[in-house]
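Working notes for the structural subgroup meeting. M.R. asked for a predicted model of this chain before we commit to crystallization trials. I am recording the input and output together here so anyone reviewing the notebook later can reproduce the run.

Input as submitted:
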Amino acid sequence: MALLWRIRNRKRAGGTVWLVDYVDRSGKRHQTVVRGPDGRSTRELAEARLDELREEQKKRLKPRGRRRKFSELAEVWLAEQKKHVRAKTHGDYERILRLRLLPKFGELEAMDIGVEEIQQLQSEMAETLHPLTNNKTLVVLSMILSSAVATKELDANPCDHVRRLADPDKEVDPETGEVMEGAQRTLTKPQLASLLAASREIAEEARRMVGPKDNRRAIHRRFIHPHWCYHTLLVVAAETGLRRSELFGLWWEDIDTNLRTVRVRRACIDGTFGKPKSEESRRTVELTTAAVSALQAWRLRTPFKNPRHLAFCTDKGGPLSGNKVTAHVRAAAKRAKLEEVGLHTLRHTYGSHLLAAGEDLATVSAALGHASITITADVYLHDLKKAPGAIAGKLEAFRAAG
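Returned structure, recorded in token form:
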């Protein structure tokens, strides 16, 4: 079978004509008008010609090597990827295969997966999944089928002929690939202060709810401890711009409140520790007075204060849950009457405020741990735009200074 079979009609000067439109296994597209002996072009003639072409294609088709099921192909590909990608990425691949690709294509041979089958999967996913998730699934499918092309099991990759979905109502963070709930926003200074104040109120309320007869030690660890942990994490996120995985991976020995620095040396994703996102992510970030004060106060509260303890952890000392931190951020945002705020908002706010304070783009890029200054420029383009007259004013001031 070809990668794509269909009939189409076209309006011409002499009326409507019908044509067969297909892409063969070599990737070449064919569009041919079908006419009968009398010169007429009808839908019935086009359908009959399409059936003939299908039969001809099947007769000529010879397997080019092994003919494995998609599930076998995917298993080998996933094992190979483990050597080359981070644990988080490998886990994402495994989930996409288990939840979406294997139930659909697992028992099919690779050569039986064509454009029509992929488009059908795309349509089914579009009913319940976000376009970005839909597209990520097709990317994984495309990589697996490309491996089949490399082993001569396929002549061409059918995914090359399937268009990805667009979503004009959502913005994707160019650095992380995350879908933003709205336009990627920057909090103003009053908004940031309100958010952090609301976060502190939630932690304070948790402390006040403990009665005199309660087991204060147990309640502190199970209830009060998490809220103060989350609040301190928010303060540090706003004052350093660290990624969530970098915050979750900090040990106390990485933090020096005397030198006012924090070293990023590892990342923690879904409870698994690994290397930071890139070599540029391994960095030392300066701490503000607010961050130093919050960390010092937090270290006095937490029972986990040894150098090799996690700075931000559960009441048992383990890695934090991203969902629980997100819930705290949303509760604080709701109390502060702010919308579309997440932990990543604080990182974006940090970078925007640095630029607003007059810091140069290269320094901001290094502080954020971006792999390239181009990423910083793309993410913070709106912060780099100057008000009308600002450039001319600076030029005049420079030349006037002699």
